[in-house]
Amino acid sequence: MDKDDYVIEMLHIRKEFPGIVANDDITLQLKRGEIHALLGENGAGKSTLMSVLFGLYTPEKGIIKKNGKEVRIKNPNDATALGIGMVHQHFMLVDIFTVLDNIILGAEPNKFGFLTKEAARKRVIQLSEKYNLKVDPDAKIEDITVGMQQRVEILKMLYRDNEVLIFDEPTAVLTPQEIDELMKIMKELAAEGKSILFITHKLNEIKEVADRCSILRKGKYIGTVDVENTTKEELSSLMVGHSVSLKVDKKEAQPADTVLQIKDLCVKSKLHNKDCVHNVSFDVKAGEIVCIAGIDGNGQTELIGGLTGLENISGGQILLDGEDITRKSIRYKNTHGISHVPEDRHKHGLVLDYSLEDNMVLQRYYEPKFSRFGLLKRDTIRSYSDRLTKQFDVRSGEGARTVVRSMSGGNQQKAIIAREMDRDHKLLIAVQPTRGLDVGAIEYIHKAIVNERDQGSAILLVSLELDEVMNLSDRILVMYEGEIVGEVDPKKTTLQELGLYMSGAKKDTGKEA
C-alpha cells in the first residue's frame, strides 16, 4: 500500500503569528529513506513548519501522521519519543557545558540515579568516528567554532537514535570542505534508512543530495518536484516567483586612496595564551572589494574582532584614512567611518528582544536627529526604520514594532545590512553578509555591495562561500592559521588553487600580501 511509504505526513498545516500567517494550508509528505529538501525564501515558513513537526509550535489547523497513524506532538520530548530530531539554524546548545554534556543533555545515562558518563563518552566517540564528525568531548561549546558546534548538534540527534532527521539550514555556517562532509553524512544516513528533511536555499546542495524538493512561497505550498529532472534555474524561479540571476554583475574596480591600513596586527586567542592572528598586514582602498577567504577558525573572526574593537589587540597598528585608530573605542570607530555587518548576528548584530525600529538606530539613537534632551524622537525613528525596511525588503509580522527575535534569520540579516549600509561610512566590513539568505536576497545584497564599492566605499568582505568570494571580490587574501598566506586575483585563480592556499598546502612567500 502506498501510504506505508510515508514515514511522516503533515496535512493541511496552518500556523499563525500576530500579523502573519506563517503556514497556510501546507501538506508535506516524507518518504522512508529519502532526503527531502524544503526550499523557500527567507520568511517563507520553512523553519516554522519544521518547528511544528518538532513540537516547538502547535498549529491552529492540520494533522501530523507518523507511519500512517495520527500523532500529537505537543513539545520536543514528544517529537524525540517519536524518533524525530532537529538541528536548528541557530544552535540550541548550552555555551558553558562541554560537548559531551550537550550531547547527552535530556538523555543522561544513569545507574541507580547516578550519572554514568563513561559509556556515553564511548558511544559519542564511536559515532563521531563512524560519521567523521570529529569533536573534542571535553571542550566547552563557547570555545569551539560554529562548524564544530554544528557537529555537536548532529551528534545529539545520532546519539538519540532518531529516525527522522530535520536539518534547518545546516550549511549556513560551514566551510566548503565541511559542507562536502555533511552531504556525505546525509547520504550515508539515508542509505541506513533514516529519513531526512533538509531546509535550505542553496540550490547546489539540493541538486547534490536531495531526492525530492517541496517549495514554499510566502507561507503557501507551491509544489513538490523530483530534483533529478529539475534545473537550478527552475528551482530558483519556483522559489521566488520570477527568474533570478545567479551571477554577480559588476564593472572593473577603480581603486582610489587607501582607506584601511593594517600593519603587523596580532590578536590574542581567548583559548590559550598565544596569538591567533600573527603579524597580518594588508590594505583596502576606496572603490575596491577585498575578500578574506579561508576555512572557518583560521583567525578571520579574531582579525575582524581586533579591527572593530570586539577583541583585544596584542600588537600592530590599524589606520583609517591615515589616522591611527588601533586603541580607539568601538563607538569612536562607528562614528568615524566603520560600518560592520558581524559574523554572529544574534550576539553582535542585534538586541533580540528590542523592536525592529530600536535595532535600526542602535548606534545612532543619541544623535540630535533621533533624540532631544535625552528623549527619543519616536516618530522619526519609526519613519527611518520604515524607510530602511522598505528599501531592503525586510519582512516582519508587525512592521517597526516587531520584536526582532520573532523574525526569520534572513530578515534579521537584511535588517543589519540595511542599518550598516545606511550609516555614514568609509569602510564597510561585511562578515558572511549573505549567510542564511535566499537567492533573491543574495542577489540584492551583492548588488548593494557592488554599488557601495562604485560609490567609493572601501569594502572588506569575509566569506566562507567560495562562489561569493570568487564572484564578488576584486582581490582575495587567503588566511591560514592566523596568517595571510596568499593574495590572488579572482579573475586569474581557480577554486582548486584557492583550496590549496586555504588548506595550507600552498603559500605565497614571494611577496608580502
How would you sum up the major sheet?
Answer: 6 strands, mixed
Oligomer: single chain
Instruction: Enumerate how many helices there are, as a single number.
Output: 17
CATH superfamily of the largest domain: P-loop containing nucleotide triphosphate hydrolases
Q: Estimate the mean pLDDT confidence.
A: 88
Principal-axes geometry comes out as: globular
Structural key phrases:
alpha/beta; 17 helices; six-stranded mixed β-sheet; 27% strand; 3 domains; Rossmann fold; 513 residues
Ordered list of secondary-structure elements with their pairings:
Blueprint: E1 6-17, E2 20-31, E3 35-39, H1 46-53, E4 61-66, E5 69-71, H2 76-81, E6 84-87, H3 99-104, E7 110-111, E8 114-115, H4 117-130, H5 146-159, E9 164-168, H6 176-191, E10 195-200, H7 203-209, E11 212-217, E12 220-226, H8 232-240, E13 258-268, E14 275-285, E15 289-293, H9 300-308, E16 313-320, E17 323-324, H10 330-335, E18 338-341, H11 345-349, H12 356-360, E19 371-372, E20 375-376, H13 378-391, H14 409-422, E21 427-431, H15 439-454, E22 458-462, H16 466-472, E23 475-480, E24 483-488, H17 495-502
What does this protein look like?
The protein is of the alpha/beta class and 513 residues long. It has three domains: 2-240, P-loop containing nucleotide triphosphate hydrolases (Rossmann fold); 245-337 and 425-513, P-loop containing nucleotide triphosphate hydrolases (Rossmann fold), CATH 3.40.50.300; 347-423, no CATH class. 32% of the residues lie in helices and 27% in strands. The strands form six sheets. Strands 6-9-10-3-11-12 form a six-stranded mixed sheet, with helices on both faces. The chain is globular. The protein starts with 5 loop residues before the first strand and ends in an 11-residue tail after the last helix. 45% of the residues are buried.
